[in-house]
Specification:
heterodimer; A: 156 residues; alpha/beta; four-stranded parallel beta sheet; 5 helices; B: alpha/beta; 14 helices; binds iron/sulfur cluster; binds FE2/S2 (inorganic) cluster
Chain lengths: 156, 380
């Protein structure tokens, strides 16, 4: 995770004059969304290169602190994506993830982090198309929104 | 509405009356010991003591406006896994009762083997202020004055803690028994109210004279609550304005030295091993240097905002607003202000209230199959 943040920061430092390229961290479930991402890749679908995938065994293990750390560490947005309701390999991990995302949506926007920077989606293993579309849409949205404040603020 | 009795006060001394009440509890065959605040030597305030022998009740002082720590955690140690069949009677502030209920939901303590007795709470001074208050006004007369004002205004120029000024849970109706101070002439008598079947059982056995509710407590309470709610709104507005962006939040927390005392003092932060004290935060030198290079400079210790945001995410739904975090902070960081403000929002989002009802599951421990469709663009 720390190494990931370190690369994020070096890679996404905008060169003067260069267009803003958002850095998005995606926590994806091994059984569904990660498989969909793999499918999208092997089927050579066009995908925005702004997303760094972190493969989790289940969205139910995405602790709120991972999302907070990513956003404080300079990620412009975070995507959490797992199995459709009813399809979670661990039965209900995705429902727990939904509550945690709800919780963060209540907390982080109060400190000026735009709620559009946090996204939760359900993408099944066979939905390579859907994954590519989600990622492209999200990257475009964040591009529009601009870089997150925490990139330039001195970290406390 | 449960039954009501009267605790007679003799010689204008309500503290002695409560010591007497504790003696009655101890005399009951079901009660093995009483946990209650006891005066510390040298006017330092009060801390909980577990009293098993009635002759040791002389320094018990549940009315001292001192709140050195939240006793909920102490009561978990006395109740979790206790199997001797007896009950520990605990005299607690309402926020201690609510913290204890939260801890029981998390299997840290047990409501089975305790008799919870809560007192109407006029508030308390911070740990640094209490000795100053006590030095000028440590006698019964000043205490009665203090109780008469329900912790309003200043006492010898000293105000009660801000957590108390902004607290809207001044009574502990969640406990088995509550002791009523508000609207009473505390030099003459106090009220005892039963709220649960267990409380009713003790009410009959304690053999105290019956009393009727003349409405004076409710009236006093209503006036106090109106003031407290207004103070709370003001605090929420101030805190929200001061922390509306990351720069504001950083400033708000800038005196923090990452000592984690606020976490240690928080009754509902119950993890045995907090992630912030583990190897995860033992960074290697190269890591610090690489962060410093990326940003040009790195504040040390690192991860201060991260710590507070994570604690908000992990426990704000359980925050009872007791203010012990601010009380414990050596650097005057307004931790309680931040936590109480955010807790109000997160608890509302899950239609939850910490400590309200032992049967209400903590919001992050449960889920519904269909909920919050707005999070996934209407797909559930
Ligand atoms: S965060 Fe502070 S106010 Fe809330 S329960 Fe913990 S110590 Fe009490
Ligand atoms: S807010 Fe205060 S008590 Fe908490 S870690 Fe920072 S300095 Fe320590
Ligand atoms: S296994 Fe995919 S969300 Fe739980």
């Amino acid at each position: 995770m720390q190494e990931l943040i370190a690369t994020l920061e070096t890679q996404s430092d905008p060169l003067p004059g260069a267009a803003f390229e958002p850095a998005i961290v995606a926590f994806v479930c091994n059984w569904c969304t990660y498989t969909a991402a793999d499918l999208a890749g092997t089927s050579r679908m066009v995908q925005s290169p702004n997303v760094r995938l972190v493969r989790m065994m289940c969205t139910g293990m995405v602790d709120p602190k991972y999302i907070i750390k990513a956003l404080l560490g300079g990620a412009d947005a975070v995507l959490v994506s797992g199995c459709h309701p009813g399809d979670c390999h661990y039965i209900n991990g995705n429902y727990k993830a939904r509550r945690r995302v709800k919780l963060l949506m209540e907390i982080l926007p109060r400190f000026g982090i735009d709620s559009r920077r946090i996204k939760l989606t359900w993408v099944g293993a066979s939905e390579g198309n859907e994954f590519a579309a989600t990622v492209n849409r999200f990257a475009a949205e964040i591009k529009e929104l601009g870089p997150i404040d925490t990139r330039r603020l001195p970290l406390l | 509405m449960g039954s009501i009795a009267r605790i007679e006060v003799k010689d204008g001394n309500p503290v002695a009356a409560l010591q007497n009440f504790c003696a009655r509890l101890l005399a009951d065959s079901e009660i093995t010991a009483v946990l209650a605040p006891r005066q510390l030597p040298g006017n330092r305030g009060a801390m909980p003591a577990l009293v098993a022998a009635p002759e040791q009740l002389h320094d018990i002082d549940p009315l001292a406006p001192s709140f050195r720590l939240n006793a909920a955690r102490m009561l978990t140690r006395l109740t979790r896994g206790a199997d001797d069949g007896g009950l520990v009677a605990a005299l607690l502030r309402p926020c201690e009762v609510r913290a204890f209920i939260e801890l029981c939901k998390l299997n840290q303590g047990s409501l089975e083997n305790t008799l919870l007795v809560s007192l109407d709470c006029p508030g308390a001074f911070s740990n640094t202020d209490y000795p100053r208050f006590a030095a000028n006004s440590g006698d019964t007369w000043s205490l009665v004055q203090f109780l008469g004002t329900s912790g309003r205004g200043t006492h010898g120029g000293i105000e009660i803690a801000r957590a108390c000024c902004t607290c809207e849970h001044t009574t502990g109706a969640e406990a088995d028994l509550s002791i009523g101070l508000f609207g009473q002439d505390v030099e003459k008598g106090l009220l005892l109210m039963a709220n649960t079947p267990r409380g009713e059982g003790f009410m009959t056995r304690l053999g105290l004279p019956e009393a009727t509710d003349d409405g004076s407590r409710d009236k006093a309470l209503e006036a106090l609550l109106a003031e407290r709610r207004a103070a709370q709104e003001l605090m929420f507005a101030e805190t929200t304005a001061a922390t509306s962006d990351m720069t504001g939040l950083s400033q708000f927390l800038s005196a923090c030295v990452n000592c984690y005392n606020c976490r240690a003092a928080c009754p509902v932060c119950y993890c045995k091993e907090c992630v912030f004290l583990t190897d995860v935060f033992e960074h290697k030198p190269w890591q610090y240097l690489s962060w410093a290079r990326q940003r040009g400079a790195l504040k040390m210790p690192t991860d201060t905002v991260f710590f507070h945001l994570t604690r908000l995410a992990h426990m704000s739904t359980a925050c009872v607003g007791c203010g012990q975090c601010s009380n414990a902070c050596p650097n005057g960081v307004p931790v309680m202000e931040l936590f109480k403000t955010i807790a109000a929002a997160t608890q509302k989002a899950f239609e939850y209230e910490a400590g309200r009802d032992p049967g209400e599951a903590p919001p992050l421990s449960v889920f519904r199959e269909r909920e919050f469709p707005e999070l996934t663009g209407g797909l559930d």
